[in-house]
Specification:
This protein is mainly alpha-helical. The chain is about 55% helix and about 0% strand.
Length: about 150
């Protein structure tokens, strides 16, 4: 019985010694930079977008040309998901800033934006960086709004 008591006592001392300074973990965690605030506008340089009313046909045409060249293989213009989600109704579900940030800042969005991460879980394929400029992303956005017939 004395052996058991000594063993338990030794085990208790060992376990309490292994715990170390519990403030050390807390101090290390508090030294980390806080995570950036995630908004419904996404993460990136696009903070504000003013939509044209009515939509500008030249921007819609440019956006469609970019879509045909860079986006059509993975995104369809209806609700059907191919590799990525279909674009129909997208402008009703997401703010214009979020859409443009997703187009121009895709890596960061997929790593840090909860909505983008949910799409990645659904589609199981990371959207590639197509190196779309902010101006071209704005034309694509105008084209997206034309799909949803927002004038």
């Amino acid at each position: 019985m004395n052996k058991h008591l000594a063993l338990l006592l030794g085990l208790g001392i060992l376990l309490s010694a292994c715990g170390g300074n519990s403030n050390q973990t807390t101090d290390q965690a508090s030294e980390k930079a806080p995570a950036p605030a995630v908004s419904d506008k996404g993460i990136g340089e696009i903070k504000s977008v003013t939509m044209n009313s009515p939509l500008k046909p030249d921007m819609v045409a440019k956006g469609q040309a970019i879509y045909d060249m860079k986006c059509a293989a993975c995104h369809k213009l209806d609700e059907m998901r191919v590799v990525g989600p279909g674009w129909k109704g997208l402008t009703e579900r997401r703010k214009p800033e979020w859409i443009m940030n997703m187009i121009t800042n895709v890596e960061v969005m997929l790593d840090k934006d909860p909505a983008a991460q949910a799409l990645l879980e659904e589609c199981l394929t990371r959207m590639p960086n197509q190196n779309v400029s902010v101006g071209d992303a704005r034309d694509i956005l105008e084209f997206m709004y034309s799909i949803d017939e927002k004038k």
